[in-house]
Amino acid sequence: MARPATQRAASPPRLSIVVLPFANIAGGSEQEYFTDGITESLTTDLSRISGAFVIARSTAFAYKTKRIDLRQVGRDLNVRYALEGSVQRGGTRVRVSVQLSDCSTDTQLWAERFDQELANLFEMQDEIVARLSGQLGAQLIEAEARRAERSPDPDSMDLYFRARALINRGSTAEYLKPAEALLKRALLLDPNNVDALAAKGWVDMDLGAGFITGDHAARLASAEAAAIKALSLAPNHAWAHLVLGSFYNTVNRGAEAIAEFEHALTLDRNLVYAHALIGMAKTALGRAEEAESHYREALRLSPQDVAAHHWMSSAGTSKLHLAQDAAAVMWFRRAIEANRNFAFTHLSLAAALAYLGRIDEAHAAAKAGLALEPSFTIGRFRAGARSDNLVYIGGRERIYEGMRRAGVPK
After folding, report:
1. Cβ atoms of residues 267 and 236 within 8 Å
2. Is the pLDDT of residue 6 over 50?
3. How many CB atoms lie within 10 A of CB 77?
4. What is the bridge-based pairing of β-strands 53-54 and 16-19?
C-alpha cells in the first residue's frame, strides 16, 4: 500500500533500519532455516537498542524474493539504513557475510564476514547474531554521529550521538572529555534526554573510577544522580542500569551491582560490558574463582571491542587473587598484545612474574608500566580498593607484595 504523500515526505527516523532477508547462496532446507533465523534474531536484537526504529520481520520478509533497490527500500519503509547478508556453506565451513548501507545514497558503511568450521548450525547462529548485534549497534551510532556533525543546528539527540561515538572509541580523557562537553550541551537543550543522561553517567564513572580527573567523589555522585534520573524517566533503560551497577560496584555494594548488571542483560542480552562488570563485582566480593567465565563471555560477544584489553587484564587480576600466577601471566600478555598502553596491565604482569620467580622479566614489566604512568605507587593502588571483603582484601595484599618484589614504588 502506498504511503500518504505527507508520510513519504517525512525524514526517516534516526537509527531506523531494516534487516533484509539474508540470501541462502548454497541452498538446502536446513541452511534456509539457519539463514532466516539470523535475519529474525538480528531484527529482534537491534530493536533493543535505545531509540532504534526497526522494521518488523513480516514486512522485511516481503523482500525475500525481490530484486533489491536500497534507495527504493528506504523510501518505501522510511528508514535510513539497511542490513543485507548472505550465507554460504562449502564442505565443512560456513561463511556469513553482512553489509550495512545508507539507503539514501546506496553507500556501504560497514561490512563483516564470519568464516568458520561448521558446528551445530543453530549454535553457530546464536554466536554470529551475538557478535553482529554489538558491532552493528556501534556502527549505527557512528553513522548517526557523522550525520549529526553535518547538521547546522544540532539538537539534543544529534549531540548525544556525537558523544556516544566518542565514548565507543575508548575510556581515555582524549575521548571522554570532549564527549562530556557534548553531553552537557545535549542536556541543556533537553534535561530529560534519557540516552544523554545515561551516557553522562557512564562518562562520570569512567573519569571518576579510573581516577582520570581529581574529583573522584564528585564524579561518582554525578554518575549516580544521572543514572537514577534516567531510570526515573525510563525504568527499562539497559545502559542506565549498567551505569547504576557500575556506581554500586565502586562503592562497596557488590551484590546490588550484580543485580543491576543482570537486570541490564535481561533488557539487552548483548550488553557486553555487563558481563565483564559482573566478573569485577564477583572478584570484589571474594568470588574471584567465578570471574573468568564472565570475561570470556564478554570476549566471545565482542572479541575486537575497544575494552577487550581491560577484560583480559581483569581476568588476569582474578587469577592473581587466586594465586594462579601462570594463568595470570597468560591473560596479561594477551591484554598487552591488544593494547600496550595500559600501565596497570604491565604492573600486574610484573607481580605475577615475580611470584613465578622470573625476577628479571618482572622488573622489565614494572619498568614498562611505570614508563606509561610514572606517578603510580602501590599506596595509590591500595587506596582504590572497591570492597572490604576479607577474601578480596587478602587477594589485593598478595598483588601489592608481588608488585613490591617487582620493584614498583611503595
Report:
1. yes
2. no
3. 22
4. parallel
Decide: 35 and 182 in contact? Cβ < 8 Å: no
DSSP per-residue letters across 107-173: EEEEEEEEEEE---HHHHHHHHHHHHHHHHHHHHHHHHHHHHHT-SS--HHHHHHHHHHHHTT-SSH
CATH no., domain 270-410: 1.25.40.10
Least confident of 106-120, 179-193, 221-235: 106-120
| Full DSSP string of 84-113 | EEEEEEETTEEEEEEEEEETTTTEEEEEEE
Q: Looking at residue 212, what is its pLDDT?
A: 63
CA-wise closest residue to 169 among 211, 198, 206: 206
Q: How many CB atoms neighbour CB 149 within 10 A?
A: 12
Alpha-helical segments (H) within 234-307: 238-250, 254-267, 272-284, 291-301
Judge whether 131 and 301 are in contact, CB under 8 Å. yes
Q: What is the structure's pLDDT at 8? A: 42
Burial class (CB in 10 A: 0-12, 13-18, 19+), 46: buried
3-state secondary structure of 19: strand
The whole-number pLDDT of residue 364 equals 97
How many Å separate Cα 387 from the centre of its chain?
A: 24
Q: What residue segments make up the domains of the chain, in order of their start?
A: 5-132, 151-255, 270-410
Long-range contacts of residues 214-221, Cβ cutoff 8 Å, at least 24 apart: 220/247, 220/250, 220/251
Nine cell digits for residue 351: 607481580
CA-nearest of 12, 26, 33, 24 to 80 is 12
Buried b (16+ CB within 10 A) or exposed e, 22-31: bebeeeeeeb
What the block records as the C-alpha cell of 164 is 556516544
What are φ and ψ of residue 21, in 5° steps? Answer: -55, 130
Q: What class does CATH assign to 151-255?
A: mainly alpha
User: What residues have CB less than 8 Å from 208, skipping those under 6 apart?
Assistant: 215, 216, 217, 218, 219, 220, 222, 223, 250
Domains 151-255 and 270-410 share a fold: yes
CB 231 within 8 A of CB 223: no
Q: pLDDT tens digits for 187-212?
A: 999 999 999 999 999 999 988 876 66
